[in-house]
Amino acid sequence: MITMRTEALDVAYEERIIVRNLNLGIPTGKITALVGANGSGKSTILKAMARLMKPSAGTVLLDGKSIHAQSTKEIAKQLAILPQNPTAPEGLTVSELISYGRFPYQSRFGSLTKLDREVIHWAMQVTGMREFEGRPVDQLSGGQRQRAWIAMALAQNTRFLFLDEPTTFLDMAHQLEVLQLLQKLNREEGRTIVMVVHDLNHATRYAHHMIAIKKGSVISEGRTEDVVTEDVLQEVFGIRADIIKDPRTGVPLCLPYALGDSALTI
């Protein structure tokens, strides 16, 4: 089922069009990975779909309605976004950061209700951050800090969770920590997750649906085994690679071995 889609979407930075005539749908209740080379427009697409960027043309539809025709608070109750490398004010505690996720539900006086506190407690529990609630965010490890930000996004209690390269600058253990948390949220909470992923093998391991982007356009989309092919990797990334099956999960794994003919044209 598709409840969020773009229609003929154009997005530009000043006069430069980054995304042109984009038509794609996000499968509800699934994890979708946006993949592509640096500068391909992945993050721009994510920001446009989350209403952080206004399109030059076309629209983003949520439940058949343009997200730009709805109020900011109403959209914030439907989707949450975690940008790349978010930063918190010095000394801000984990519980204070997570409480920011309740902003769309607060009155103009800004006080937390009993329900707000229950949701904050739940977000800390599900992300494993309860023991760190009084600790300043800037004193956490990389993986703990990323989990705190995800908890803040969860506190918004939205159907859609957007993440822009959530494992950037994390070591392998912390990368797995974050990706397994997202997988758990999808399985147990039914959250629709859309993430820009730098590591192609992370995308195949944790996503149900994949969208390969080049120069702001969709080159291939669908199941990971349909997208991760030698031809698509050649066109999108400019590499030659062997595709093998993961012996544990059966999903495709990419083993690059050479630059392809299109490597200099990406």
Question: What does the overall shape look like?
Answer: globular
Strand arrangement within the widest β-sheet reads 6-7-8-3-9-10
* Structure annotation, total helices: 9
Structural class based on helices, strands and sheet pairing: alpha/beta
Order of helices and strands: EEEHEEHEHHHEHEHEEHHEE
The N- and C-terminal alpha carbons lie at a distance of: 33 Å
Radius of gyration: 19 Å
Helix content: 25-40%
Beta-strand share of residues? 25-35%
Please explain how this structure is put together.
The protein has helices spanning 42-49, 72-76, 94-99, 114-126, 142-155, 172-189, 200-206, 224-227, 230-237; strands spanning 2-13, 16-27, 31-36, 57-62, 65-66, 79-82, 160-164, 192-196, 209-214, 217-222, 239-245, 252-259. The protein is an alpha/beta fold and 266 residues long. The chain folds into two domains: 1-78 and 158-232, 3-Layer(aba) Sandwich (Rossmann fold); 88-157, no CATH class. The radius of gyration is 19 Å and the shape is globular. Strand 11 and strand 12 form a beta hairpin. The strands form three sheets. The protein has a six-stranded mixed sheet, with helices on both faces. 31% of the residues lie in helices and 30% in strands. The mean pLDDT is 93. The longest helix has 18 residues, at 172-189.
